[in-house]
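Re: folding output
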Amino acid sequence: MSRIGKQPITIPAGVTVEVKDLLVTVKGAKGELSHEVPGELTLTKEGEQLILVPHARFKDAPPQNARELWGLTRTLIANMIEGVTQGYSKVLQIEGVGYRATLEGEDLVFSLGFSHPVRAKKPQGISFSVEKNLVTVSGIVKQQVGEVASRIRSFRPPEPYKGKGIRYQGEVVRRKLGKKAAK
């Protein structure tokens, strides 16, 4: 049984949750999100809590795919509630001489040592901010924030010899010694 799926989801003040058939809609201060619950699960709202229960096929055993989706769906709904209340953000750090990022309108333009500037278009629901060598990607959908941050990091991942490139803030890059260590 899913330990995560068994936990009820508490609804904080200022958030409204509507459960209509298999569609869950969460509205909060930062926006509105919706998610379709799989047919193998039942979602009920009891007071200020959401409870997710799998359908029992036999006496006490739900089908295998219901058990697999139980914890995942609970986590996705909890992430939606956290997204519309607090939001999500990832901070990227740019390391290297001459490496920099600037905002042009709502898009990011990077100077990363290539012969051309690298542009990152702003997707809907995501916002960028730049301070010195830090780029902050923020939004209300956790998966989308992570994907955009990963795509930006892939423009110039940190290399192991000098550590130049784009990395997540707090990420540790294993450094190699290079040719000097071979002697």
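--- second protein (sequence, then structure) ---
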Amino acid sequence: MRDRVGDIVAEGFDVAVRFGEPEPSALIARLILRTRVLTCASPGYVARHGHPAHPSDLDDGRHACIRFRNPATGQPFAWEFHRGGRSGWQVGSR
């Protein structure tokens, strides 16, 4: 596992597993599975920092969040939250 996209052929890899939409390439890509990412916190963290009431609370600097970075840009991916069929709450897209 690593935090950058490299040239898997030149680096001697036979296979790579990646998340998200594949970049245009001459490589063969196959969907293995569809998954979702869950946002969670330990009970101890919530006891110390509080429970966010809304996804926007995660973007106010009070919470220490681990975020996946886009290897092409180095910027964290925005989080999109879904609840009860509604979607569109985005955190960290600034």
